[in-house]
Amino acid sequence: MKTIEKISEGKNYSAVNVGKIDEIINYELPMGPDVVIKGKVFAGQAVSATGSEFSFQTLVPGQDSGFLHTHKTHEELYMILRGEGQYQVDGEVFPVSEGSIVRVAPDGKRALKNTGSENLTMLCIQYKANAFTADDSPMTDGVILQEPLNW
After folding, report:
1. Cα–Cα distance between 43 and 54 in angstroms, integer?
2. Between the N and C ends of the chain, which has fewer C-beta atoms within 10 Å?
């Protein structure tokens, strides 16, 4: 089973490496005594994330996520990094492929299926729904510092 590699850590950051996109398939996520999801890894805790969780998952051709699911408070963003498939939310099915991004509210009943001939790999970011306000715009929250870069 593949594991996350820690790269560096400091007071204000953590850095890890989950490996190449093609290696995501080698992870295993234990979900209970009889349930193991192959090709999935959560990495938020590995980088000590405090406002979100994220995972990578690879589905082989013909494989689906195995079940519909919802969340209690988390909204999710699914970003398709490679491959193609179908995404289902609340009974609606639509095509997704490399570059597709799907946002699903907590109550959305969701699932993903690889309908292509190659592996489908996605990144899923989950965070508390409705946490951002108008004051949280990336254009107003960021601060450009007048300090030199140290490469």
Report:
1. 6
2. C
Question: With 0-12 CB in 10 A as exposed, 13-18 as middle and 19+ as buried, what is 93?
Answer: exposed
Give the pLDDT score at 86.
98
Rounded distance, CA 90 to CA 104, Å?
10
pLDDT digits 0-9 by tens, 3-47: 999 999 999 999 999 999 999 999 999 888 888 889 999 999 999
| Residue 124 CB contacts under 8 Å (≥ 6 apart), including other chains | 54, 55, 56, 57, 76, 77, 78, 79
E-strand stretches of the chain: 5-10, 13-17, 28-32, 35-38, 40-42, 53-59, 74-82, 84-89, 92-97, 101-104, 110-114, 120-128
pLDDT of residue 62: 97
Which amino acid is residue 27, in one-letter code? Y
Q: In the block, which residue shows the tokens 């699914």?
A: 78
66 vs 56, more confident: 56
